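Quick start: read one record
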Amino acid sequence: MNKLLTIISIVAFLFGCGKQQAIKSPALPERIVSLAPNITETLYALGLGSNVVGATTACTYPEAAKHIPRVGGFGQFNYESIISLKPDLVILHKEFDAEKKQLAGLGIPYLETSSYFISDILKTIHTIGSTCGAEQEADALIRDLELRIGELERKTDQQPRVLMIFGGTTDETIEQIHAFGTECLHHELLEIAGGQNVIDGHLPFASLSREAVFRLNPDIIIQLAPDAKPTDDPASAWQAFDTVPAVTNGRVYLLTGDHTCIPGPRFIQILEDFSQIIGQDD
């Protein structure tokens, strides 16, 4: 995946806010098509993987999801493929208005979900569980996630100032920085972990210049790069920022893996990563 596609995909994953509702099929769905990675992960987490008959090319977790018939890329769906799978329910993000209209015109029941904040993810788990006959599994998963959140919450007056960026690689010159703002899941997770976001505008993300990084002067830099290798050195691309405390003090961290930018049940792993990084200040 090239850099532009990575950035577009990550940003797209982050937009899923709003009320959830369903155009329901008359019985519990047995043939489900998922139109987003976080939805696919939720279905498998609820034990509904055997009911998933179609998914996008971006749906690669868990391993079994890689073998599901594809219905196009994330945000670029093939309706002929969807029809051929004869689904009794399609699950998609709320903001996909054109797709909902298309499905309604085809007479295909759909369920819309959200994924912008923790509350959205938990509600999505509950909604999918209640719609698909996995209420007990959904309740158990929600309880487990809420318990883990409580265990990882860090309350302190000493909050390090953190710059969270997404995309990019560790072997390129840092010119344009794409950072998480305050209106997104990652900001919420950072606050729970005890960090303070250096971006204070009411936006889900922001594009920063090199000068802006110097002005923000973060104590910690966290780079979320799904396509990077865990063995990459995150500090190598930041040497030109040697007066920034995060760089001076060796507090530049690289988080890899697709879970870092997919707002599904594995958000708890992001919180664990943030908590471990912030906890080094204790």
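The longest helix spans residues 135-152.
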